[in-house]
Specification:
Elements (H helix, E strand, L loop, with lengths): L3 H11 L11 E5 L2 E4 L4 E4 L15 H11 L12 H12 L5 E5 L2 H16 L5 E5 L8 H5 L16 E4 L4 H7 L4 E6 L13 H14 L2 E5 L23 E4 L10 E5 L20 H16 L2 H19 L4 E7 L2 E6 L4 H9 L2 E2 L1 E3 L3 E4 L7 H16 L1
Helix pairs in contact: 2-8, 3-8, 9-11, 10-11
The structure holds pyridoxal-5'-phosphate.
Length: 390
Amino acid sequence: MTSNASLVELTNQHLIANYGRLPVAMVRGQGARVWDADGREYIDFFPGFGAGGVSGHCHPAVTAAIKAQADKLLCCGNLFTNQPQVELAQAVTQHGFGGKVFFCHSGAEANEAALKLVRLAAGEGRYKIISFNQCFHGRTMGALSLTPEKFQKGFEPMLPGSVKLDMGELAAVEKAIDAETAGIFIEPIQGEGGVNVPQKAFMQGLRKLCDKHGLLLVCDEVWTAPARTAKWYGYQLHDIQPDVMTLGKALGGGAPVAACVAAPKWAGVLSPGKHGCTLGGNPLCAAAGVAVCRLIEQENLLAKAKADGAKIVKAIADARIAKVKQVRGAGMMLGIELDGPGKAVFDRCLQQGLLVNLTQDTVLRLAPPLIIEQSLLEKGLEILIAAMRA
Ligand SMILES: Cc1ncc(COP(=O)(O)O)c(C=O)c1O
């Protein structure tokens, strides 16, 4: 018989301990609920660390697409094309700024592709990239170079020309730009950094600086898209258009698919031989991604994200909890900043059967699946509010 304890023991024996794992093994999920190996049920306000952010666990539309595709064509080298990949590219671009798509499997990989694209597009001698403190762009060496120093310890040297500045300081950004600068990477809302929302004027200022100095603006939408902020893409909150955006996490509904999307002007930069990914855009994961995009359209999930997000914000405000300093975010990408460490609140939620995330020590992060039914949203909120009150 498997149990949490037996699976955790086997995990400790056989898996590299690079994650600070909880002593819980998940065995089954459905919608906004997930069950562990001891048969305990949880309401999941953070499914798959964002991967279940739209469709939750095992959404029937996603699993049906995967099953159908599994019987049809499972792998297809990228010297050929395949229908699900094309359909997913169409779905992704039609709700954004058009352009063209490169597929891979993870957010970090999508950012690596964006980095290469930016360097090529900017031209010889321009290699410097500006990113922002408290950002998170991934763990591979390029993406890591753009991410704060605390994640880089021991892996130095990083990519030369990685410049980190404070979000909001437009004058400092302009001062940092020189003839070697190629681009700027920014999350339309920082996730890992504590759900920090840049001001619209700052984002619009970055766009103008990029235009003025011939730089590419890259929006890392790995957390903010699709539909999490109640917009298809987070950049749409700021009324700007990036040159490149990267997607991952929720795009595949749990299947690993990520993307680097280049605006029409830059869509030809990665010409044959410049980049690749054997399994990128494979038919199985692409079919799952198409199902996720259809779900957003058919179930009107943008409007639902807006309404459900507002419901969460109101419930927390109405509860008037002294230790809540601020609730911030957009749509269903929300952070609750507490006046001190949130570990005890996190633990109480877990004990009471609610999964949330804690980041930066003091910020509870909520990203419930957009398909969540009202009864589970309300029950989860009850647990959360009680846990913050205790
Ligand atoms: C904004 C952002 N970009 C990139 C990544 C890296 O994604 P992955 O873990 O799929 O490589 C993350 C991961 O949390 C992220 O939050």
